[in-house]
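The material for today's practical consists of a large collection of protein records. Backbone structure tokens are a discrete shorthand for how the chain folds in space. An example says more than a description, so a record of this kind follows:
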Amino acid sequence: MRSHDVDYRILGSDIQVLEVELDPQETVIAEAGAMVYMEEAIAFETKMGDGSTPDQGLLGKLFSAGTRLITGESLFMTHFTNRGSYGKCRVAFSAPYPGTIIPVDLSTLPNGLIVERSGFLAAAWGTQISVHFNQRLGAGFFGGEGFILQKLTGDGKAFVHAGGTIIEKQLQNELLRVDTGCIVAFEPGIEFSVARAGGLRSMIFGGEGLLLATLRGTGRVWIQSMPVKKLIQALAPWGANSKKESGTVLGGLFGSLLDE
């Protein structure tokens, strides 16, 4: 099934808004609560799942939607459709925290795109949003990104949100070490694992966390400069989140022990 061919523009610089332009009967899907405004002919409906396989039956829809619960996302998604008989209409979306919106043409990614579980914002109808299991349990448990990620596949446009500035890196059979919370998305050809952040002293007192994410292979990687956990720490340095070392489980344990 081909995705709808939607037009769009991204407004703003630091706190961006995505405005999608829909022809009659075109649809865009988005995370619940992401809508900012919509014009008169736009109608919206909350559904289970992304709607990419409308003939899968009730059990299939329940399974597809249920996998989103595993990633920590809502069971439902909102479908916005231009119900007018002529003329374009617009609907706009924003993410729940400041950052940058990345437009992705999935037709250039035949194997799809792996996205952090909170990174998906919106996509043209026909895009399939599924669960991607990290093959390395250690990366999932300690890597900040979680054992379960999201995978976007299709031939239309999708939009991913990230905190701060976005850096796109093209790896050519290379290795790149990244703060575990700064990974936004990567192509399936990239192997994601974790490694120790130096010696014991550096791990505990270096401020970079106990572990770093390791990306190895050939393909594109998108990195964010300000993941939401760092934003929370900056706004509330003495709050409960200040003890979370780069989003790792062991970092929180060490933070608690050092406070004793």
Remarks:
- The chain has a mean pLDDT of 78.
- The domain at 7-259 is CATH 3.60.160.10 (Double-stranded beta-helix).
- The helical segments are 57-70, 137-142, 200-205, 228-235, 249-259.
